[in-house]
Target: Isochorismatase
Amino acid sequence: MTLSTEHTALVLVDVQEAFAEREAAGERRNNPGAGERIAALLAAFRTAGASVIHVRHASRAEGSRLRPERPGYAVMECAREVSGEPVLVKSVNSAFIGTDLEERLRAGGIATVTIVGATTNHCCETTTRMAGNLGFEALFVRDATWTFDMPGADGGTIPAQTIHDVTLANLSGEFARIVTAQEVIDALARR
Model:
């Protein structure tokens, strides 16, 4: 795989402190090294001069850790923005709804979006599905996304890794190419 820095963007979805708070509160997640891989991808995109777009979730739900006035709304250290990098704010799962993400990508000549963040099966998956439906090539970075255990519809708990794996299977081929952070970093270096 090779990536054109002029036509590729890194889209960081909801890399916010609310998810660190959930983990600190005892919720089990997968991909504990996702933050380090996000930081490495961010550094690689910046070094290559490729586009970087940050997306934050501003929840409207009462009590949500992701409400803008709560500490959980803040960006995690691994994904800190720098001057000139856009920060889009959404209040639904898809980064394309209620933002100018699609317009930014098209105006910038971006054909490929590389998606990282939280959570795998909610905002990352929804954004990826829409990217594919809108005609963008979506790269879903399997080791730079993560999720949490969830209650099953019929009781019990579905492990985070199972949810993550099923999401990857759902996206693979039709909506996205499933990749690792290192594959993307190597592809940027080959440009």
User: Anything to note?
Assistant: Residues 34-48 form the longest helix (15 residues). The helical segments are 17-24, 34-48, 101-107, 120-133, 160-171, 181-189. The chain has one domain: 8-189.
